Amino acid sequence: MFKQIGAVTMINLRSIPQRAGLSLATIISIALVTGVLLGFLAMSNGFRATLQGTGSDNVAVALRAGSQAELNSGLSSEDVRLIEEAPGVARDSEGRPLVSGELYVIVDGTKRASGTDANLPLRGVGPQALSLREGFEMVEGRMFEPGTNELVVGASVLREFSGFDLGETIRLGSNEWVVVGIFSTGGSVFESEIWADIAVIQNLYNRGTAVQSVRARLTSVEAIEDLRAWEEDEPRVNLDIESETDFFASQAGGTAVLIEFVGWPLAIIMAIGALAGAWNTMYSSVDTRMREIATLRAIGFSGFAAAVGTMVESLVLAALGGLVGALAIYLLFNGVSASTLGSGFTQVVFSFAVTGGSVIAGMVMAVVIGFFGGLVPAIRSAYVPLLTVHRSE
Amino acid sequence: MNDLTLIRKNLFRKKLRAILLTLSILIAFLIFGVLGAFYKVWNSGAELAADNRLVTVNRINFTVTMPYAYWGRIQAVEGVEAASFANWFGGYYQEPTRQVQTFAVDPESYLNVYPELVFEPEQRAAFIANRTCLAVGRDIADFYGWSLGDRIPLLSNIWQKSDGSSSWEFDICAVFDGREDYPANYAMFHYEYYNEDLAFNQDQIGWIVIQTQSADMNASVADTIDTMFANSPAETETATEAAFSEGFANQFGNIALILLFVVGSAFSTILIIVGFTMVTAINERTGEIAVMKTLGFPAPRIFRMVLSESVMLSLVGGLLGLGLAWGMVTLIAAAPGVSAFLPGLSMPQNVFIAGVGLAVLLGLLTGIIPAINAQRVKIVTALGKQ
Fold this sequence. Notes:
A: eleven-stranded mixed β-sheet; about 20% strand; elongated; B: alpha+beta; two-stranded antiparallel ribbon
């Protein structure tokens, strides 16, 4: 029985070159469908990875209640001072609270890809900002001097936007700035930002001493509850407090899910088209081998073996298509840098990521197409009338 | 029996094959049609822009505000027919997730520069006269179930009143429509009413909309304005409405390129499947074609017949696909709430026409090789085969 199946399957597979055209058509069409799916998944996975790779459980982000985004928020220096004294907030070795009040202004940067302007955050930070970002390092140049018109640029900004090279002078409105350093935070969202001294930005943009967000290092992950409890009881503040991890994870949701919501239905509809193609190919395969199958049946091979042979051929073609599609997308897109408008209303630079999970999803889809494409032709090959042997071509 | 009958019979001689091919063609055109309709909505900002309308924003970025006084100074610039301004309110209704696109405007001048907004005359007058009035686009009003005379609070996720609250009370005294495809998915109210209570950023505006006397004057007007405010604390950048919309759409990424990849993949798929199948199908018929030639069918006629067969197949699949796309788009557009987010979603005529053109092209491309093969069939060798 298994010998029969093996023999018929080998005959099927070895004869594929005789139907090279149609078989190639099946492989390519399934490769394209898999490619479309994996392309969308690589986009959404890359975007999600960037946002989920940002932030720490040990850092709390406080915004004005109801403001939803850093951009909309506004807090006074009094708020910052109160948070510095709040329970659960960690201090450095010299007893200074690890709290950073920050604000940002959206400025225009020119996208390299399109040459059009896009929103970039110019974040004003104080000395404590660095101690609240794990993995922060200067890749080139140095940190800005407080009180000057110097700024440092995230590595992702440099990759996607033109005009931010080290030493370059940038005109933002009527002010000129000098790029004195390039920093990295290990691929997180902060790398899509430009940083300068907070006091200079407050002054230039007439913000007084106001900030938009306050980041605080927590004594422990659980200490965020102490901070929240304090906020509830403290009438002088009205804040939304979230862990930094949650803050960025919630931002990942919308865009990443949207991309998948577009990608999956498109891929499934295209899969139906490819399924029709695969079915057609297998149908022709059975058609051209009518006499051969009938001969096998006449010399004692079972109809089941013939069916399995046809099905395996279909699955092999589909799997090949899936592999070709996955490989092509991996080579073409994996690691490719792109940027889109994030929920902070500024550009988030991310890299396409072809993940193992998405490749598996793509392969499963390819094999499913192969299975349904081969099903009816396989059944048909099991019922080839023996008399076909005598039919003259 | 004329040629058409013969072509049709040939096409459907293997029914299953014809159906499967039609199905794969249909899918590609369905994708083309639906994505084409969505792309039109996506691109509508630039498409619907008036060619003599300019937008002035702060040069740093359009989210950075400018002094209110700029409005007056711009109105005096030569070549400016009319000008108005707006500020982004960041509005939401009850819950932060229920966002309402809301602008603070100067009603009379705003309606002058946007003749696309259609108001009942008495509602227009009420909006201009009543300082607590909220003029609501039809799509928004339908979505939230608001009607004329309702008094509703809108909250802002940006602005605060001097008493610390972020809620403004409005009376809905006008519900407006957009002319043709123009979106009516936002709300607007009196800038004065909102500005007087602001805790911060008073007397600042977000962007200025300018109607020039004619599109020829766009460049000179833009230049004059930007020069006028150069070296001031709030420098400006003036662009045509179309360029501004396009720039904003580009911020999300190169959507056009992504769609091109998807549609390209879908069409490559059917090109390959249909192309190879047609070659196979005609090869199977070599003997028949030889017989036809023996009967006196001239080679060009056979060439035409094979080509017509593939064009017919493409057209059947293509028209079915475009029809299905039209049906789907119409269904989606009619679903509750969709018009607030995808205003003007419909099957664009030019997408439909382009689709039919593509179907003919696909038919010609997939039919040309089999047609040449068929034309070249030699009676002696073909019949000798048997």
